[in-house]
User: Which sequence fits this backbone?
């Protein structure tokens, strides 16, 4: 006798199938010995399974991370990676803004300057001790006296707008007071760095959303994908605000006489 048996589906499996197959009802039929195999019975069972899936659909989003299926875990990884990349974009912005002098001596303005040291480009901070002599003077003491020339040459080539004073023992950098015109130029530079940071953050957002859409094509449910996009946008908005705040603070520092 040709009969049919419906595979039992426990609650956890329901949740798993719900995630992986976009809430579609899956009924696995296997041939077993049973008396009833009518279409009406199968249709009734199909409806029962469908209602079971529908009733559990709202529970999936509230599962603990360790209980989510791989697709939801992949979504979390996409969002976390996007957040980390945005943090790195902010760190880069902070480093660039620190190099923009606001009238006060700060060794950070020498970051990014490399000196030829025995044929190899080496960070200035690794071949000399840089200190703040006073509010408008930086003092550079090379570890090796023969590095005075290369350091002086590197500072001039860096175009940071400062002329090194080499007395044969140390190099001094005197920071002149900023004129109103120069302050405005620096503010424009700050705003330019801010715009670049925003471009980076928005590019990261776009890539994250594209990855989420790819996961959706691979089986991630539309509702979960939309929730992921909303989360990405929320993170993006937070970092855009942070960019604006960094630039605002730097503008204020520059324009304060």
Assistant:
């Amino acid at each position: 006798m040709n009969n049919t048996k419906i595979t039992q589906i426990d609650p956890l499996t329901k949740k798993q199938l719900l995630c992986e197959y976009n809430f579609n009802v899956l009924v696995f039929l296997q041939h077993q010995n049973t008396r009833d195999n009518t279409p009406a019975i199968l249709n009734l069972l199909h409806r029962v399974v469908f209602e079971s899936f529908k009733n559990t659909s709202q529970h999936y989003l509230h599962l603990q991370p360790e209980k989510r299926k791989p697709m939801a875990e992949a979504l979390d990884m996409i969002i976390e990676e996007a957040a980390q990349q945005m943090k790195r974009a902010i760190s880069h912005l902070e480093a660039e803004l620190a190099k923009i002098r606001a009238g006060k001596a700060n060794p950070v303005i020498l970051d990014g300057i490399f000196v030829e040291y025995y044929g190899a480009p080496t960070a200035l901070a690794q071949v000399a001790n840089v200190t703040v002599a006073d509010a408008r003077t930086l003092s550079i003491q090379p570890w090796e006296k023969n590095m005075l020339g290369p350091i002086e040459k590197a500072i001039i080539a860096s175009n940071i707008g400062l002329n090194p004073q080499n007395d044969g023992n140390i190099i001094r950098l005197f920071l002149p007071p900023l004129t109103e015109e120069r302050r405005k130029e620096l503010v424009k530079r700050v705003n330019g760095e801010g715009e670049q940071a925003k471009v980076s953050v928005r590019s990261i957002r776009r890539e994250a959303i594209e990855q989420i859409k790819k996961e959706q094509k691979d089986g991630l449910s539309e509702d979960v994908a939309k929730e992921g996009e909303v989360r990405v946008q929320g993170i993006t908005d937070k970092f855009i605000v942070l960019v604006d705040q960094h630039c605002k603070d730097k503008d204020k520092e520059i324009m304060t006489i």
Helices lie at 11-20, 39-56, 70-99, 148-157, 180-217, 222-255. The radius of gyration is 31 Å. Residues 1-15, 17-36, 53-68 have pLDDT under 50 and may be disordered.
